[in-house]
Known about the structure:
The chain is an alpha/beta fold. It has helices at 16-29, 57-74, 92-97, 129-138, 141-148, 152-171, 175-178, 182-192, and strands spanning 2-6, 35-38, 78-81, 100-102, 106-111, 114-119, 196-199, 206-212, 215-221, 228-235, 239-246.
Amino acid sequence: MRTLLIADMHLSNDTPELNQGFYRYLEHTAKGAEDLYILGDLFDAWIGDDLLDTPHPLSGVAHEVIKRLRALSDAGTSIFFIHGNRDFLIGERFINACQATLLPDSEQVELQGVAAVILHGDSLCTLDTAYQQFRTMARSPQWQQGMLAKPLEERRMIAQGMRMQSQGNNANKAENIMDVTPEEVVRVMDEAGVKHLIHGHTHRPNIHDVALADGQGKRWVLGDWGKLGWQIVADSEKGLRLESFEIN
């Protein structure tokens, strides 16, 4: 049996080749998997489930994603989703339409016999205090209710402005601030009592050794999708492995 984990596809109406690559992944690579975990940033931006009812440019992509994920679910694959920093406004309507399950920001799971903590990864970047302040605000029900009450076009402009501001701010940040904080990784893993932690967000695919209180662990980092796609495969016989593959 296989379990698959992916993150940071950043699908949008401006990425037709990437979108098609993701559809092929669902139709072929993910076919027959027991579980598929999507660890955030499925979309480059999500401004509310009500865009599914509008001629918004992303709406057509979203409906196609729903159709493909639902087909995978209908074929027997369980689909799980964790919010990312770009699509944290995805709500129950979208999740239910995909026949998926929305998980908390951090979740302890069994991946074909391997105990692990899975999360998007942005919460691990604790040195980026400005972002963490924004994250706390943006994940609050009050802020989200206020945002979703705004007209869709206004939300689109706000999201665009946030992305531009974020890009400008990130250009001036040190590399260590942009990456996860090692002490936070150890804290999360020790608290959960696991030897494996899996995340995306940083776009730095790799496998890192982690010194834990009771031995050695590993931090698995998924890459973002571009010319290559990235997945972690949990195999009941071979354990975990990080893989890249051609999108086209």
